[in-house]
Amino acid sequence: MTDEFSASYSDLLDGTYDCVDRLVLNAYNPLCASPGGFRTWWRRLMGGSDADLDTAHLMRLAGRFSRRVRAYADANGIPVIDCKAGERKHELAEEYLGEHPAARGVFLILVARAVAPVWEVERTPNGTLRNLAKKKAYVNHYSFHIMDPEWGHLTIKLSGHPPFGAQIILNGHEYVASRGAKQGLNFTKEGNCFTRVDSPVELAKVADTVSDARASGHLSQLCDRWIYTACLCFGLSLEEQERSGFQYAYSVYQVEYSRNLLFTEGGQMEQVFQDLVDRNRARLGLRQIRTIFGTHHRHTRARTGQRASRVAVTLERPVYSLTVFKLHFGQLTLKGYTKGERVLRFEAIVHNPRELGCGRVIAKLPTIVARLKAILDRALRTVQWLDRAFVADATLDQLPVPAQLGKTRVGGIDLGQVRMRTVLAAIVALALTPRGVTVGELAAKIHEIGGQAVRDYGVRQAAYDLKKLRAKQLVEKPGHSRRYQVLDHGLRTITALVVLREHVLKPLLAAASQPIASAPLRPKLGRKPKTWSPIDEHYQTLRLTMHALLNDLHLAVA
What we know:
This protein is α+β, with helices and mostly antiparallel strands and 558 residues long. The chain is built from 17 helices and 17 strands. It is elongated and about 115 Å long.
């Protein structure tokens, strides 16, 4: 990836890939978009006459559509489900696919009411056509869920009323999974996300084909392959389609473009994302949001009566333990959230391509995707994120957990115990011994450092504690030697644990209960002593800096 965010965390990632996610196309008959055009189409359908063009005949076509759909589904064992308002229809399809993984072609039909344009015919008492008006009404829509051998799962949602407007709903991850499987790529897919990929570079190449210059032609062919013979045929037979010249054109309605970062460790992903949320939820203003979305207009109403564009920074928690960070600017949205245990996803969404100013016909899809990609790149340059050096691994969490050394199970390293803290201090003191450390030398050093607190400590305890350190890969025992060597990274870890606890955390904790004076910025500890040293200045700076940090993070403890 070329963006700075991905590059800064590159050593924490197994790979990245970009992919067109949700893609919604509008299917419409251009001839039927105007009253004159609809009347022309009707005459072609009815042999040159529009005497039967009235609301009753249009309703009969809708009734015929419904009867044919249900009869065909009953004859071929395809479930038809009438859905209630607000029901998540895609979840029904996913559940059915889970139970019938071998489904091919049309495998499920869902029926629900939704708004669609319909024609209302008004005639005079003597039968003369007075007015043909388009209006929006709630009518039955039929969602044909289809399993395509090339693309995978797609949905065609078709209105049962003339002019039979439709939407084609696809997901780029379905296509990438189907194409990748044919190329022999190994991956694990959960929903619309790849959580494990053996070759992210090869997968990214497949994902790029969804939005390349040939994508619009492939999508048109895909839609044509199903919409006429599997959906529209219930309203107009193939002969009626040909006689009336009914033909769909396609335009882009909604596009989601995602960048997916596959982290090696889920804990590091959570730390990076939660810190990004904390740093940006209150910092991003209109200027930064305009920079991200690449707009230089003044934020006012463009036309009389038109609502001003929505601009917002929001946090949502649709399910437990999931945080979704969103930026809204008019019909554009940027989302950041986690998928599965190790995937961090950023999405750029356009709800109406008119917002991008590049056209909506399907031939403009590569241009639309390129502009969404540019939004992602600008967003990941503009937002603030945690410096790579401060992204913690699992060391601190794993130290207290029991571990395995060969066939022996040993306890963890509990820094709450005086004995274990003394052992670590002794290891630091003896780490530079050229020949290594013996069990006896460690026990003697512990007695020297700990005094009466560890008076019962002996060589058996020292041997067991060294086993704990070996199980955590902090210390090694070469071959059959009786001497132990402290590993380089082990010494850095142990030294940090000892020094930070004793010389940073303890002084800061002692000062945490003391209030900070408004001026001068000194702790209220009475008169400043004459022996105020540079070390005292450093501690005071740390204390003040910690309060400023907590304040910037909007934590109540500040």
